[in-house]
Amino acid sequence: MARKKTFTQEELYQATHDLMLEVGYDIFSFQLLANKLDISRTALYKYYTNKYDLLQDYLKHQLEKVVERLDATEWPSEYPEKLSALMDLVFDYADTHAISAMVPAQQWTKENANDPDIQRSKELHARFFGFIQVMIEEGQRDGFLNQEIPLMVMIETIFHSINLPNRAGLSAEQRAYFVKKMLFEGILKQK
């Protein structure tokens, strides 16, 4: 049977996403990706010279989607619902964050500091992180969040809660629910 000759950027990114989660960075290859898309490796090499370039484009695209969603979301006016919606957004992109952590060259170093793609990723990351900071500051200012807890501890806890291993085998929705429950209500039983 003949292979497909074309694929969309979205198909490529989805297949990249799925394959990275299945096999990880070290095993990920254009051959495996071509098989997943039912195309030839040559078709991939027309657009990307190596897997790093593809993964860098994919991750930048995903981060742009996060920031676009931040801007497009109709945020609830009630603070608890707004914070819950933010946590949902963070968890919706947990897989992307996991993939980013797998890519060694995605780490920000002095060597790649001038790379335009790295600079764009840093800018998008800063916007997302800044949005979380503004929301936490609002919660502390308006008396919804504990002011004794340093701002950065709250921001990092929210931002990095998606890194917690899922050893319980919960669905993404269940996991988000329980992490939000712990963050919002604590782990001590309420009397």
Automatic annotation (TrEMBL):
The domain of life is Bacteria
Q: Where is the HTH tetR-type domain?
A: 6-66
PROSITE patterns attached to this UniProt entry? HTH_TETR_2
Database matches in InterPro entries: Homeodomain-like_sf, HTH-type_Tx_Regulator, HTH_TetR, Tet_transcr_reg_TetR-rel_C_sf
The feature table lists the DNA-binding region at: 29-48
Q: Among its keywords, does the record have Transcription?
A: no
**Which keywords does this chain's UniProt record carry?**
DNA-binding
Which GO terms fall under molecular function for this chain's record?
DNA binding
Please name the Pfam families in this protein's record: TetR_N
Protein name, please?
TetR/AcrR family transcriptional regulator
Which organism is this entry from?
A: Trichococcus shcherbakoviae subsp. psychrophilus
